[in-house]
Amino acid sequence: MSVSVDTKLSIQFFGRVGDVMGKARTIDLPDGGWTLGELRRRLAAAAGSDILLQPGVRGAIDKQVASDEAMVRPGAEVAFFSLFSGG
Amino acid sequence: MAVVSRIQAGPLHPAAELDAFLAGRSDDGAVVNFTGVTRRSAHSGAEVASLHLEHYPGMTERSIADIAEAGAARFEVSDVLVIHRHGEIAPGEAIVFVAVASRRRGEAFAAAEYLMDRLKTEAAFWKREDGSGESHWIEPTAVDRDRRARWSD
Q: In CATH, what is the architecture of B2-145?
């Protein structure tokens, strides 16, 4: 019998997004994972803020910008951030 | 060819970096360098006490390295150096240094301009101007975006 075990996933936030969400949060990720979009919606609901849903706010998996359809698996490194300011 | 890029939290010394870049160089007819300096006034006119550049370790370095590599591939250059600061930067301090060596000055000028136009819009930093009691996250300006668009293939 297989048992589903949630994994703690740490998510980092940068730029304007970090002002609202804090620099990092931890969430329980099911062993099947979520899409980045699902994670985004759950984090927004938990925070009671729509900042993650605003245009231009992007997500990254393992330091690569990813689409909302990309899967977040246990062990991944995830971040959300506002538009790059540039240098 | 050497393509070097790095970020650092501490002070940036453009003159020393340029000296090191020039040392022993005898086959290149041109070295172009650019230093970006933190301004005391924001675009709004408000006084800036300090600039805070937030970075995402790993992603930020990769974004700068990609730009440096693209510049080296696009132009006839011998060496490329890009150094960018992060963290707190006071007005008057150097924030970015770019140097390009080439046999020909036209290529060196163009490559340096290309590197800066892309860095100004695509480097993975989040920049906040901190003033007296107020802070603002800033994004590339329309001018920055127009300058970047000139290099689109």
A: Alpha-Beta Complex (3.90)
Q: Contact A79/B59, CB-based, under 8 Å?
A: yes
B→A contacts (Cβ < 8 Å), by residue, are 36, 53-54, 56, 58-59, 62-64, 84, 95-96, 119-127, 137-140, 144
Domain ranges of chain B: 2-145
Helix (H) or strand (E) holding B97: strand B94-102
Chain B hits for A18, CB-CB cut-off 8 Å, are 54, 126
In sign, the C-alpha dihedral spanning B115, B120, B123, B127 is: positive
pLDDT digits (tens, 9 = 90+) for B104-130: 999 999 999 999 999 999 999 999 999
Local confidence pLDDT in tens for the 87 residues of chain A: 556 667 889 999 999 999 999 999 999 999 899 999 999 999 999 999 999 999 999 999 999 999 999 999 998 999 999 999 999
Of all residues in chain A, the one with the smallest CA distance to B122 is A86
How distant is the Cα of B61 from the closest Cα of chain A, in angstroms?
Answer: 11
CB atoms within 10 A of CB B110: 20
φ, ψ of residue B138 to 5 degrees: the values are -120, 155
Complex prediction ipTM:
0.90
Under a CB-based contact definition with an 8 Å cutoff, are residues B113 and B35 in contact? no
pTM of the model: 0.92
